[in-house]
Design goal:
The chain contains eleven helices and 18 strands.
Length: 304
Amino acid sequence: MQKATLTILGCGSALPTKNNFPSAQILEIRDKQFLIDCGEGTQIRMRQMGAKTNRLGHIFISHLHGDHCFGLIGLISSFGMLNRTADLHIHAQPDLERIMKVQLDYFCESLSFQVIFHHFNPKKHELIFEDRSISVYSIPLKHRVPSCGFLFEEKPRDRHILREMIDFYNIPTWRILKIKQGEDFETADGEIIPNDQLTVVGELPKRFAYCSDTAYSEKIIPIIEGVDCLYHEATFMETEKKRAKETFHSTARQAGEIALKAKVKKLIIGHYSARYIHQDELLDETKSVFKNTLLGEDLTTYEI
């Protein structure tokens, strides 16, 4: 069974602290790596963790606040020094390409790979990337600037063919792939063997949702409903609910309410305000609403 993991490189908010760098995380799924946001210090956290990025081809930027994208130019420059040759794809709203072009032209004019920008509209829920095994959708969020989250969905895996059925019906090797993909099998005598007698369901597709930065918004619930894991910002405690509303952020309790209403399987909170030295109080507040909550921590890997 292949594991899907989320590695948090930074889960602080705008002001870095000793324990929390700004937002960045690596989702590893189906032998691919996706970087979600790239706050200042992302490459430092990668080096500290010894993260191998040979399978990192795509970066998704939620919005254009510095704590979510200031790390991009440093990371790209370092990739150049490491003689990367694979193209790097950056998915973001159109303004990021304009901002980055000046920096790339000045600091990274002789890269050994191409940086390719893919634009999306953060105000729309739509498919923004897919390949043979993964689909990624935008999730419009409620923030001071155009902002969106991301929903990563595995495509269904092939069914598992039963070894005893292969032997019993003398199924030739060249037919096995088609049977895994759902075909019935016809024996030499013309008997049709239904696929569900030959196979069992494979691993269920995994779903992960990233929602930061955002004020409390129930509009995201139909999009993220039932995901295996939700990362949702919990910038403030409920005592600072007025501040959260003014800055278009969420409280820890509100993160729990979204998880509960969306019936997600697991919640990880993050994007903490620097004012909270003891973040267990944020966790306690969230768990008072949604029990299966984990405290997001820098330099930590979670299984989806």
